[in-house]
């Protein structure tokens, strides 16, 4: 093979390499476009307003979470003092007949006292349904979307988007590595 043929062969190989690099760049660009679309959809799903019903699902769950500490506090007092079985009939009768307060842990779930200390978990445990109702009533003053994507549908779509983004980012990274290995990054 003469020098001219070798030069032509090298030029041919460089041309093929450039073509391959251009194809890879185009694939990276397409992946970037898909990623951008998915990120925009993800942001829109995350920022879209909820219906009042869906918003109230979060409120109910939060009230239950806040109330959940109260029974634990009651269990602790039982473990430490034997409450309520440590209170005898005669003691309860004496307090009742003399119009004294019973020494019950109504408001904190943990102490025998006159009720001057309130633990928030007791408030949510005792009045949770009323808090939910009154809070819902207060929210009626705002304009809520009539319909919208349900919480479960949002979560499902966000999960799908995250999986798709993961695959696209991996593909994009592999393409970028391929491009870098050609040395033709411009």
Distance between the termini: 32 Å
* Helix/strand order: HHHHHH
State the shape: elongated
Mean pLDDT: 90
- Sheet of most strands: none
Radius of gyration: 34 Å
SSE class = mainly alpha
Amount of helix: over 70%
Q: How many β-strands, per DSSP?
A: 0
Strand content: under 5%
User: DSSP helix count?
Assistant: 6
Q: Which residues form runs of ≥5 with pLDDT under 50?
A: none
What does this protein structure show overall?
The chain has 186 residues and is mainly α. 73% of the residues lie in helices and 0% in strands. The protein has helices at 3-47, 52-67, 69-81, 89-97, 120-139, 151-182. Helix 2 packs antiparallel against helix 5. The chain is elongated and about 120 Å long.
Task: Note the topology.
Elements: H1 3-47, H2 52-67, H3 69-81, H4 89-97, H5 120-139, H6 151-182
Helix pairs in contact: 1-6, 2-5
Summarize the structure.
With 186 residues, the chain is an all-alpha fold. It contains six helices and no strands.
Can you tag this structure with a few keywords?
186 residues, 73% helix, elongated
């Amino acid at each position: 093979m003469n020098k001219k043929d070798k030069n032509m062969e090298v030029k041919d190989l460089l041309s093929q390499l450039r073509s391959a690099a251009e194809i890879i760049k185009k694939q990276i660009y397409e992946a970037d476009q898909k990623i951008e679309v998915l990120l925009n959809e993800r942001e829109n799903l995350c920022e879209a307003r909820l219906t009042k019903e869906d918003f109230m699902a979060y409120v109910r769950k939060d009230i239950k979470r806040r109330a959940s500490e109260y029974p634990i506090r009651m269990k602790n007092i039982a473990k430490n003092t034997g409450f309520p079985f440590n209170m005898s009939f005669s003691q309860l009768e004496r307090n009742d007949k003399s119009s004294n307060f019973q020494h019950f842990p109504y408001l904190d779930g943990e102490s025998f006292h006159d009720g001057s200390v309130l633990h928030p978990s007791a408030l949510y445990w005792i009045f949770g349904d009323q808090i939910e109702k009154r809070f819902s009533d207060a929210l009626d003053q705002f304009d809520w979307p009539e319909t919208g994507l349900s919480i479960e549908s949002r979560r499902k779509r966000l999960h799908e988007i995250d999986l798709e983004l993961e695959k696209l980012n991996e593909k994009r990274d592999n393409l970028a590595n391929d491009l870098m290995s050609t040395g033709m990054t411009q």
